[in-house]
Amino acid sequence: MTGQIDQDVPLLSPGREQIQAWTQLMLVTANALRQRRMELGQAAWSQQRAAARTAQQYANDLDPRVRAMAAADEAAFREAGASGAEGFEHRTSDEPQFGWTVHTTAGPMPENSPSGTRGAWGLWAHGSYHEKSLSVFVVVPDRESALRLRDEVTRGEQRTLKSLGELGTYGFLRAEHARTEVREDEVQLRERLAHGLHTAWAHDPGLVAGVLRPARDENDVDYSSIDQLAHKLSRLEDRGYAIEDVLGRLDTGAIRAWYDQQDQELCNLAGYTSSLVSQVADRLQVVDAVQVDPVVSREVDQTLAQGLHEAGVESDRVYRSRNFGQVKAQLTDLRSDGHDLTPLLAGLPGEKINEAGDPAAYLRAVLEKRARSSRPTEATAEAGRAAAEAETGIHRTGPDLGPAERMMRRYLAPETADSVIGCRAWPGLAKQLLAWKEEGAPVAEELARLPEDRVRSAGTPAGYLKTLLRRGVDFRENEARKAGEVSGRERDAQHAARVRDLTEVDESRRAGPVTEAVRDGVPPSPFEVRELDPTNAVERTALEMSRGAGTVEDDAYIAEILAAPDPGEVWSKFNRAAEARGRAVDAEQQAAAHARTPDDLDTRPREDLIGQDEAGIDRRRADRESAIAHAEESGVPTAAALRAEIAHRPPTTEPGAAARSETRPASPAPPAPTRQATHAPRPRR
């Protein structure tokens, strides 16, 4: 076909206008979903992604931007600053800061300090005001951060030493809490090993330096022996024995004698110390594949073999069964809690166990039923462990994660249990499981119905499993609480009403998500995040460290204001919007008060509904303030908001107001506002 084409050629793809309309619709939908998610308190719609974000926040808290210095670090930093070490800078405030004269010392953390092994910098700020004085020591990641914080407390009365001290204290609290929620990486674990050595062997710093000295070859530095010692102490810590307590029980005199006989540049002092720690662990009877008291494990094996033999059960089929590990963990838990296993394993249904396709699973069901009516009979559940602690002089000061591990292996498949226990977020889940066990929460029912495939494939299996269990346990507890309230109302209506007022559950959050930060006990931020100025170094750092301690809306606000190219403008926009919204609320309240004001019917001549006219004025003012607040949040210039067309609200008679008089002539109605007609563009066909 030839010739000029008079019409547009139809296209298979949508036009530009349709694409723009579709994009705008998607943005509006995404914003609405985001707002709804924040109203529900969810960090993400996906539970797996929310768990991964929570675990990452804990990992960030392990190394906060600003944290208070340890006591051993303070001494080393003071000494390095006084001796004129390289890189140290001293400054005194030119003018008093809030009446205080401030002296600062900033410099790299010394190599012999527990927190100075990763190139961190320290800041020491000392202030004096007449007879008062205050010293603040903080650790920051780099020189730039140290100098920025130093300038904040020495120039222009920007921030006080107290603000800097609160920032460091809060960072320390967050780091200590995160250490019980996620596992540390290799470098962080080495730092804590260094701190433990400095604390336990403070009298011999040379020996501490020898343990922390890595092996060197021609091309690289080898930390394998140091990491082996750190991981061994970490496993003991999981059983409740502090690193400082274990190291403090070692014979440092014998270690020093051995060290002096060796070539100190070539000997492996960390490996030698690790062998001594293994000997202590053997005496404590905790080095075992399943972390069980050997006395308990031996009794479980003997009692189980005797019970199977007396019942005529084919023991080989039970031992080779896929679920035998769960049976062993179940019996171990019962025995560790003080139950007598002999009556539990007496008179087993041998024929039914032999005929079952999975004899271990059938045996587990039998034991589960019998355990419901069993009661602890012994005061000391693990006599062997208690005797070992008395012998070595080391006692548990922290939680024992062994029962939590056995619980995982009891209810989950082996590969699922391995993925959960090997996850970095395992300590937080284990701690929560132990707390639920003490409270008698229905954890077993939730573990029995878990989607194990999704748990294994999750990025953080332990964090995802913790989220699933928490939702299930909260739902069951809330349902049980409601059932108790119904039963109470039937027995005594008045008493049930009083209990209901005290224990009422919010329906909107009954089966909804629970804020991780609130339930996990994250230290609450001591700062008002909406009042922190992001252009200030101290307060910007406080904003960064406040993530995860408040609501999801607070986290969204922090992320937006820190990522903005002009944080000051974003901060002022939020403040202006909040002020306008507050003025709108005040105007609405005044309008409601005026609307409820009746007029005097006996007044001649009477003004037509004076209170209602005032209410109309207040409503229009409220509409104006709401428009300004919306414009501020949307980034519209304030001038455009002031010119926004406000819908006219005619005066109305509220309930309780005076009725209009029939004899008084009606006042002429004001002219209706005219609007310029606008026509929507027609879609191109």
TrEMBL record:
Compositional bias ranges of the Low complexity kind: 377-391, 657-666, 674-685
Residue spans of biased composition, Basic and acidic residues class: 482-510, 596-609, 616-633
Superkingdom, taxonomy of origin: Bacteria
Region (Disordered): 373-402, 482-530, 582-685
Protein name per Swiss-Prot or TrEMBL: Uncharacterized protein
Organism expressing this protein natively: Pseudonocardia ammonioxydans
